[in-house]
Amino acid sequence: MTSLQRTGDSAYGTVKSPRYAILTYTWGRFRASSDKPALEVKGLSWKVSPIKDEHFTVDDFRRVIAHMGQSVEFAWIDVCCIDQENSATKMYEVGRQAGIFKQATYAFAWLNFHTHEKLQGLFDVIFDLDNIISGWGLEELSDDQKHTATPKLQCILSTLHSLMQDP
């Protein structure tokens, strides 16, 4: 994998405004000591921070990036695109993330250590709930609709909370 430096407004090397995918995930609190393996990226002036294996391994990271590459040729991944050691650069680039994410052709979310089945169950509940209350204000729901929606909302909030927890 090679990182291309921005050479102008939305230009990377000879490519102007490429289609790209973004990867969103949490990793900061899972940073490993500097002697651990880290993703190797050509073209960077900094070393990508290693991540604890229990969060994800370098091989896991490579597999996700390869999967992203099936859709588009370019990817935006913060640890590969933002120098994590240069605070001024990091803060400037973090401030640009909303625009970067908005312009992405595809967005991938790494939802940590949860199984596909658990995540699918959450999405099923979300879509089912959306079908129940779509077009309604909560104050307009019948008691029966509220009775059906409330436990599902609690399930969603509980599962979202679990996504934020350490393994």
Automatic annotation (TrEMBL):
Query: Which InterPro entries does the entry mention?
Result: HET
Q: Where is the Heterokaryon incompatibility domain?
A: 20-119
Name a Pfam family for this protein: HET
Q: Identify this protein by name.
A: Heterokaryon incompatibility domain-containing protein
